[in-house]
Automatic annotation (TrEMBL):
Pathway: Lipid metabolism; fatty acid biosynthesis. Gene3D superfamilies: NAD(P)-binding Rossmann-like Domain. It holds the Pfam family adh_short_C2. InterPro entries: NAD(P)-bd_dom_sf, SDR_fam. This is 1,6-dihydroxycyclohexa-2,4-diene-1-carboxylate dehydrogenase. Residues 201-220 are annotated as: Disordered.
Length: 256
């Protein structure tokens, strides 16, 4: 298995015997995270809307000896989030890690040009998916007395031209810090990463001309690098960390 995904993870087996649910696992950071955690021993449950890309990631995981199943559905709807966790429990009997990666900005424009439908779509995609999945997985983690949730925010909460997306991701930060306080005594950790620009398959998803000045290191992070940060926060190496927002590549994710 070493070298099939990321040579930097070779030999690490921090997730042996664990089950990880990855939302948005069919592409981008979600795909890299699914592969990374599988490489480190986790059984993977991908929650996504796109069968083709999810099947491809799942096949790659199985090819290098990992275990993976898929639950398809729009996770901005409660019933699909609940079905995703039910799929994990019916297949593997536990949920040790939830990585809420599904989401991402749709439009890039001044706020006055957003239609109500566009605002709702941005909030559904980048806030409600994480909210419902946290709620759906929590009873299972509470019952087993352990678990780790990693949400994905963004440095764009201080940016421009994506107000609904920024609001949705700021909501994930608030959900992280509040929920972490509620469940820490139950053995459950909740953390968040806030990436700056991340290299994407679709160049239109990244606008270097308008955002390069926001990134201190002057380059986009790779999906595998974001996956490594998620793996750290989800692992026993971070067993003392909860309620934290880790800025990845962009300094502080918010100015307070």
């Amino acid at each position: 298995m070493a070298g099939e995904l990321d040579p930097r993870a070779a030999g690490a087996r921090r997730f042996d015997g664990q089950v990880a649910v990855i939302t948005g696992g069919g592409q981008g950071i979600g795909s890299a995270t699914a592969r990374r955690l599988a490489q480190e021993g986790a059984s993977i449950v991908i929650g996504d809307m796109v069968a083709e890309t999810s099947d491809r990631v799942c096949a790659a995981i199985r090819e290098f000896g990992g275990e993976c199943v898929i639950s398809l559905g729009d996770l901005s709807r409660w019933e699909n989030a609940e079905a995703l966790m039910r799929r994990a429990m019916e297949t593997y009997g536990r949920i040790d890690v939830l990585a809420n990666i599904a989401g991402g900005t749709i439009w890039f424009q001044s706020f006055q040009y957003y239609t109500p439908e566009q605002i709702q779509a941005e909030m559904d995609r980048s806030f409600w998916t994480a909210m419902w999945c946290c709620r759906a997985t929590l009873p299972h983690m509470i019952q087993q007395g352990s678990g780790s949730i990693v949400n994905i925010a963004t440095h764009a909460v201080t940016g421009r031209f994506r107000v609904p997306y920024a609001a949705a991701k700021a909501g994930q930060i608030g959900m992280t810090t509040s929920l972490a306080r509620e469940v820490a005594h139950l053995g459950i950790r909740v953390n968040c990463i806030a990436p700056s620009g991340t290299a994407a398959d679709d160049p239109q998803q990244y606008r270097a001309s308008t955002r390069s000045s926001e990134i201190p290191m002057g380059r986009r992070g790779e999906a595998d690098e974001q996956a490594a940060a998620i793996a750290f926060l989800a692992s026993h190496d971070a067993s003392y960390i909860t309620g934290q927002v880790l800025a990845v590549g962009g300094g502080q994710p918010y100015p307070f």
